Amino acid sequence: MTELQAEQAAAVPQAEAGLQRSRYFDVLIALAAFAVLAILPMLTGSKALLDFVIRCSAFGLFATSLNLLVGYTGLVSFGHGMFFGLGAYGFGLIMQRTGVPVPVAFVATLVITTIIAAVIGAICVRLKEIYFAFVTLAFQMLIHSTILSWVSLTGGDQGLRGGIPRPAFFGIDLSNHVHLYIASCALLVIGLLLMRQIAQSPFGYTLRMIRDNANRASFVGIDVWRAKLTIFVLAALFASTGGIIMALFVSGAYPEFAYWTISGEGIFINMLGGVTTFLGPMVGTVLLLILNDTVTRLTEYYGIVLGIVILFFAIGLRKGLMDFVVEWYTQRRNGPGE
Amino acid sequence: MTRTRKPGVSRRATLAMMGAGAVTFAAPWVARAQAKTIKVGMPTILSGRVAQLGTSSRNGVMLEIEKVNAAGGLAGRQIEMVIRDSKGQPQEAARVARELVNTDGCEILIDAEASSGAFAVHEVARDLGVLCLHTNSETSALTADPKQHIPNAFRTARQGVHDSIVGGSYAAAIAKAKGLKKWATCSPDYAYGRDTTGEYVTYLKRFAPDTEIISESWPKLFQPDYTEVVTKILQAKPQALYSCLWGGDLTSYIDQANIYALFSQMEVFAVNMADYTALTVVKNLPKGIHSGNRYIKTYPATPENAAWGDAYKAKYNEYPTNWSWENATAIMLLAEASKKANSADGKKIAEALRGLKIKSPFGADGTVTMRAEDQTLVGYAIGWGTTIPQEPYVPQVQAGDWKTIFELEAEWKKSKGYT
User: Fold this and answer.
1) What is the rounded CA–CA span in Å between residue B71 and residue B63?
2) How do the domains of chain B map onto residue ranges?
3) CATH topology of domain B161-299+381-415
4) Could you tell me how many helices (H) and strands (E) chain B has, helices first?
5) What's phi and psi for B187, nearest 5 deg?
């Protein structure tokens, strides 16, 4: 269905207006979502719930940005976690070493991420499928090893110690739990909205075309390499933002943030939530975190429960939850007769 | 038909979703029930390669909790332990610690995390102000660095720098007596391995200035094959070898080095050898390996220590580990501090803990002290001896001198800019 839309949107000027309308609609949904999240602390005193949403923001941005690569462009990156780690370390180090205001550190971290992602991406996106996956994994391990061995800067495997200072700015004090919560929600909503706009833009449809048939795209006159590199860098920026939220949440940065297991978790979230809908990874994040939090409360044999869930999704549903829901819904709507 | 079915389905679906959502959301965040019991939260590692850290820490804690509860608990409140797996991930350790306090209503944290996880929990303690006892992290900076210092966090574990001072002076004495000048090192390639080895060598050279390091090997943590490391060391022909490999790494290393008869060609100093996890697993434990004491029930050679080791063995059918005594000590200190403060309140217990000296099976002189200035444990049994292949494994342990430790530790702190 989306492919059909793509071709229509490319040709007919009417579609421009449709796009505009759907953009307003997205903004409205985003505002509503933010409003709901923002009044949550007034309704409940549960700090754990706020913690939960903060972690959802970090992993949600990370997983959704991974889906821009996996679901929209067909680039299965096994090293996306490096940008999560990069965000956490970049932000943490800048705050600890320089004492600049938080927004400056935030922007600086994104600039650093852009540069590194551009270099790594320029090398990786030339490769296809499994080669791309492996080279991204290799770069991730390179960054992880660098973090481990550059002890004087990163603290090695003990991580960044001593907490991340966070001076107040514009009346926002991130050491206040509720402020941190609101800031995380804002970053999440803005991040999702931006990613949605990327996905729905002509550029987003170019990516889908590359995913489905890169040769065709290049015959049409699209610079495939440049498009892939652009989305690689953009996805890295959102992953990095997720890392920054995580660094603020734990008040530190640890080498595990840049380890392949984080990338694996991202892939798993995408499997769980589904890659064909935009919100699939976000649903997957919420699902995985609820699963993680409840199961670890109940048993220490967390691995076996998670394994069964993976099996259920991989063999039983054969798709992510959102894919399943969407399919089921359209089937219901169209009725059994059609 | 499509029209008529659609609203029905969506309402049902919505209701079902809301119901499911409410259940999943409500379950973890049930309001805390303020009973007479006091909950103590313990994030630790119960899965993966170092799961033994968590299980033996838990055993050590539970053994003592039973005694404390039988004697009336903390100021009349029975202790209820809430122990949860962090899977060795620092962000999980932070999350679990926060959850334990914010949701489960734990009033005290026993942080049985290793390395980076301990620093993550430390930040949670800083943020929430909850009383926190670090029981497994031996990284000196955790308490020595004033930037880390918070009034509500204590360490009841060994400290890396103490081990290095005692190990270095012991090695230097033997180096002088036997004329060991050429040394090699072989330690795992991560912060603990690098730091501990560096400090050890510093103190070795300080006490025996004519020693030199002629070969260094840094195998990866959890490396399965040590052949190249062993042959490299043999080719360098050192007179002595230092290693801070531990657990399964140390036992695989010894089993593989035995094939090359490495232990008959040089004196070996392995700081983590004298722990039952290593001693009982090695196939042919060579005689005469020098080791620091981790936990061994024959040192300190007191009836209290032997009784504690036996009680643990009787209950869990295995010997305690180094982690077991460190965690047990946390509970002993808590109980004593609570008695002194006559309260189960975290702040009052913290106040009472500073400078508290208690009787302990693990003390060098039968007592251990929570040093007030940096809130870390001192006075615990620390020494070196040589192995024999059967129980008691390390028959004679030469005690380290705490006076020397304090002097050199102060000097070390100054050199690091901590004081």
Assistant:
1) 13
2) 38-159+305-378, 161-299+381-415
3) Rossmann fold (3.40.50)
4) 14, 16
5) -140, 155
> Across B15-107, where does the E strand assignment appear?
38-44, 79-85
Q: Which residues of chain A make contact with B191, given a CB cutoff of 8 A?
A: 151, 155-158
Q: Calculate ∠ Cα B13-B14-B19, nearest 5°.
A: 100
Q: Are B47 and A51 a contacting pair at CB < 8 A?
A: no
Give the ranges where B212-371 is alpha helix by DSSP (H).
Answer: 227-236, 247-259, 276-279, 303-316, 322-341, 346-353
Query: Where are the alpha helices (H) located in chain A, listed in sequence order?
Result: 2-11, 14-43, 47-67, 81-98, 102-124, 129-149, 151-154, 177-200, 202-212, 214-220, 224-250, 260-273, 280-298, 302-311, 321-334
Residue A272, CB-side half-sphere exposure with 13 Å CA sphere: 25
pTM for the predicted model, two decimal places: 0.82
Give the whole-angstrom CA distance, residue B93 versus residue A312.
Answer: 28
Asked if A302's CB is within 8 angstroms of B87's CB, the reply is: yes
Q: Which residue has the tokens 């956490």?
A: A88
CA distance A65 to chain B (A): 20
| DSSP label of A224 | H
The pLDDT mean for chain A works out to 86
- pLDDT band with cut points at 50, 70 and 90 for residue A15: low
Q: Interface pTM (ipTM) of the complex? A: 0.77
From A231, A233, A260, A234, select the one nearest A137 (Cα to Cα).
A260
Q: A13 in contact with B at a CB cutoff of 8 Å?
A: no
Query: pLDDT per residue over B178-217, tens digit each?
Result: 999 999 999 988 777 888 899 899 999 999 999 999 999 9
CATH code: domain B38-159+305-378 is 3.40.50.2300
Among the residue ranges A163-177, B117-131, B134-148, the one predicted with the least confidence is A163-177
Can B38-159+305-378 and B161-299+381-415 be said to share one CATH topology? yes
Are the C-beta atoms of B217 and B188 separated by less than 8 Å?
no
Token pair of B72, please?
């009336």
What single string gives the DSSP state of each residue in A125-147? TTS-HHHHHHHHHHHHHHHHHHH
Indicate the length of chain A as a whole number: 338
